[in-house]
């Protein structure tokens, strides 16, 4: 990743400078190195698993980046077109334009994540959530217990959210964007 820009830029004073400013910057949306779960697991890792799924572990894909990009790329292009005119006219810096675009894209991805309800969580996942909610840990042995409970039909998942992608809220809370040098 490029160096994160910490301060806002100044509007370019001429066309050539505006083009250079746009060419040296990019906006990234997602989860960065500092976003971690309490056990140290990077949130970006978990987000990638959720986006793509892991068939060998019976984790179905619950994509949010790809559908958001497909649905919103036209609107993002239109917004950047408006910003580009302002940049070229010296009314807005390239940094500010990309920061605003990143904020919009971040909000759009957040919205997509918040609306995901399918595929539903497995009973084993819900039992694991309940165990953690009650202060217990989840291990391979407890997953085996949950599988037996599911098979027997004798389980209690009351009081547990069945909302995919929002077990602890950390993924949504740490979604962000940054304007960086290329």
List keywords for this structure.
mainly alpha, 182 residues
Architecture overview:
Helices cover 52% and strands 7% of the residues. It has 182 residues and is mostly helical. It has two domains: 1-119 and 168-182, no CATH class; 121-163, no CATH class. The relative contact order is 0.21.
Kindly summarize this structure in a few lines:
The chain is mainly alpha-helical and about 180 residues long. The chain has helices spanning about 15-25, 45-50, 65-90, 95-115, 125-135, 140-150, 170-175, and strands at about 25-30, 175-180.
Proportion in helices: 40-55%
Average pLDDT, rounded to a whole number, is 91
Order of strands, main sheet, comes to 1-2
Strand content: 5-15%
Topology:
Elements: H1 15-24, E1 25-30, H2 43-52, H3 65-88, H4 94-115, H5 123-133, H6 140-152, H7 170-174, E2 176-181
Antiparallel strand pairs: 1-2
